[in-house]
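Q: Please design a sequence for this.
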C-alpha cells in the first residue's frame, strides 16, 4: 500500500511543472530523511519523477543546489516581531533560526561549509543578516558596535555556535558580486557596515577586523554578563 501511494505521488509530481522551488523542496526533504551526504541529483530526480538532466535547468551543480537549500531554510526563519525592542526582536529571530536547525539537523554543517567556501553569503542569508544589522542600528547601536556585535553573535544569528561572520579584506573577490550601487540598494545595512569597517579608524570599540580583538571583546562581554548574574 505504501509503495502504491509513493508511485501515485510520483505520477502526480511528474505532471506538475518542474521548478527551482520544487527541486529545492525535494532536496530538503531527502536531506531531512537520509542526511545531506546521501543526497544526489539522481535521487532528487527519482523523487520528482523526472530524468536527472531536467534538474540542471534549475540548479547548475551540487554547490548551487546546497546554496539554494540554505536559502530555502533561511526563508523559514520568522520575520522581525513588530512593536518590540531590539533585544526582544533579535532574541526571537535567533530562537526561530534555532528551531529551523532542529527541524533540519544537517543544515548547520552545510551552512558553515558553504559560507566558508563562498566569497559572500547566499542572497537569502545576506538579506537576513542585513535585516539583523538594521535591527541593531534601529536600536541605537553605532556602526562600530554593530560590527563587533555581529562577531559576538557569530552563527548564533543562524541558530548554532560557530564563528561565521568574516568581514576581513583579504578574501578572494566574488566573481558574481553585485555592482556597488545594486549592493547598496539591496543590502544597505551590510554596505554601511562594510564601508565603516574598511574606513573608520576612530571607532570607540576598535576598528577593522582583528581576530584577537574580536575574541577578547566577546570574552569580556560574556564575563561582564556573567558578573551581572551574581547575587
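A: Design:
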Amino acid at each position: 500500500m505504501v509503495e502504491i501511494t509513493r508511485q501515485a505521488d510520483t505520477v502526480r509530481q511528474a505532471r506538475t511543472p518542474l521548478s527551482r522551488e520544487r527541486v529545492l523542496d525535494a532536496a530538503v526533504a531527502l536531506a531531512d530523511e537520509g542526511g545531506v551526504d546521501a543526497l544526489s541529483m539522481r535521487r532528487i530526480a527519482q523523487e520528482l519523477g523526472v530524468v536527472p538532466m531536467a534538474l540542471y535547468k534549475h540548479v547548475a551543480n551540487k554547490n548551487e543546489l546546497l546554496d539554494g537549500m540554505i536559502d530555502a531554510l533561511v526563508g523559514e526563519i520568522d520575520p522581525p516581531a513588530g512593536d518590540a525592542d531590539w533585544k526582544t526582536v533579535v532574541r526571537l529571530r535567533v530562537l526561530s533560526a534555532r528551531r529551523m536547525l532542529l527541524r533540519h539537523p544537517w543544515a548547520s554543517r552545510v551552512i558553515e561549509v558553504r559560507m566558508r567556501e563562498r566569497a559572500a553569503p547566499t542572497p537569502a542569508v545576506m538579506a537576513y543578516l542585513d535585516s539583523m544589522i538594521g535591527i541593531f542600528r534601529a536600536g541605537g547601536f553605532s556602526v562600530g558596535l554593530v560590527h563587533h556585535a555581529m562577531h559576538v553573535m557569530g552563527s548564533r544569528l543562524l541558530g548554532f555556535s560557530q564563528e561565521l561572520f568574516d568581514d576581513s579584506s583579504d578574501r578572494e573577490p566574488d566573481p558574481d558580486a553585485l555592482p556597488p550601487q545594486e549592493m547598496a540598494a539591496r543590502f544597505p545595512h551590510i554596505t554601511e557596515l562594510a564601508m565603516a569597517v574598511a574606513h573608520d579608524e576612530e571607532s570607540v570599540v576598535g576598528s577593522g577586523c582583528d581576530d584577537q580583538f574580536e575574541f577578547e571583546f566577546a570574552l569580556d562581554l560574556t564575563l561582564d554578563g556573567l558578573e551581572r548574574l551574581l547575587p
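Q: Thanks. Anything notable?
A: The CA atoms of residues 201 and 207 lie 5 Å apart. The first helix runs from residue 2 to 15.
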